[in-house]
Amino acid sequence: MPDFREPISRGAGARQRVLQAALQVLHDDGPPGFTMEAVARRAGASKATLYRHWSTSGALMVDAMDATFQPFPVPDTGRVETDVAQLLNAFVAVLEHTPFPRLLAAFMDAAERDPALAELHADLTRRRREPVLAVLTRARDRGQLSAELDLELVTDLLTAPFFYHRFVAHRPIPPGLVDHVIAHVLATGHKSAE
Amino acid sequence: MPDFREPISRGAGARQRVLQAALQVLHDDGPPGFTMEAVARRAGASKATLYRHWSTSGALMVDAMDATFQPFPVPDTGRVETDVAQLLNAFVAVLEHTPFPRLLAAFMDAAERDPALAELHADLTRRRREPVLAVLTRARDRGQLSAELDLELVTDLLTAPFFYHRFVAHRPIPPGLVDHVIAHVLATGHKSAE
Lengths: 194, 194
Description:
Chains A, B: InterPro entries: Homeodomain-like_sf (IPR009057), HTH-type_TetR-like_transc_reg (IPR050109), HTH_TetR (IPR001647), Tet_transcr_reg_TetR-rel_C_sf (IPR036271), TetR_C (IPR011075). Chains A, B: Pfam families: TetR_C_11 (PF16859), TetR_N (PF00440). Chains A, B: This is TetR family transcriptional regulator. Chains A, B: Keywords: DNA-binding, Transcription, Transcription regulation. 2 copies of one chain form a homodimer. Chain A is built from 9 helices and no strands. The first copy, chain A, is mostly helical. Chain A has helices spanning 12-29, 36-43, 47-53, 57-66, 80-97, 100-113, 115-141, 151-169, 177-186. In chain A, 68% of the residues lie in helices and 0% in strands. Chain A folds into 2 domains: 12-66, Arc Repressor Mutant, subunit A (Orthogonal Bundle); 80-186, Tetracycline Repressor, domain 2, CATH 1.10.357.10. The first copy, chain A, is elongated. At the A-B interface, α6, α7, α8 and α9 of A face α6, α7, α8 and α9 of B.
């Protein structure tokens, strides 16, 4: 469930309803239609209730995005490729079988127009990257990956192709992509261009 | 300049004006405000003129996106890393110093809601990938890269991190990222996890 960062004064039920309503408004109307008023109407709540929890519609939008999927648990199969594959396959399932990508596309557009929203989403992205970073860091500590690897860069290379396929190339994600990306990014085995 | 795919019946000037107006409307109002009527008004042209060139507002939007930057020429420095670096640095400059990213964000949102638009943008993306693919293919033909490499995958890995930084992580692109991505994706030099 979402990682609520404020105490819930009126019970999780009411807050959940507002977040659900926020996602519906973002999904149906996109960022231009996303106002505190529209969400309050959809949730059957007062604007005052919304403002008690969220100071801006941008903060509400980020919390609603946060609620779209749980951070994945950190797997530990003993093999770093298998751990990363579990995380990436779980993410591909979210891209393919939930409303998340449509919401994220709306959100990316809104963030281009509002730097405060971009900053909030940067935090959210950092939290979502953490399981991949944790798996890579552990493998490095165990000597399975080179100590010289830049793990932030490796995390970029492992995750970015899935966003790219969906939002830029508009191509379906082929069944082998997770394994091919991992094999290329984590393994040697091809000639250097030197 | 844009790769116009239809004969221009009333002179390039008029068509250019419409494309420019289309970009302004997309930039200012986003996809919800992007209609043939709004673009015609901004261009000072009739809707009939627009429909002579474009059958739908989606087709016009794609041509306008196509006009935002020229396909890059294919460099040939003799060293594949340098060739790829030239292409990626040129793309980073487009991301950092032009209205393109804001337009692309609006476009990605619109494409999630309209499969025809996604298909048109898939074609545009394929054409924009071609210089990178050409450089990699030539390096493979010259024996500088392994014959077993999946060059489509390598192109994904080389380009996706820049979209990811801008649109998902909302982080500035650090000066060394182009070189680090190329070094990791095209080189060996780190331990396998096996």
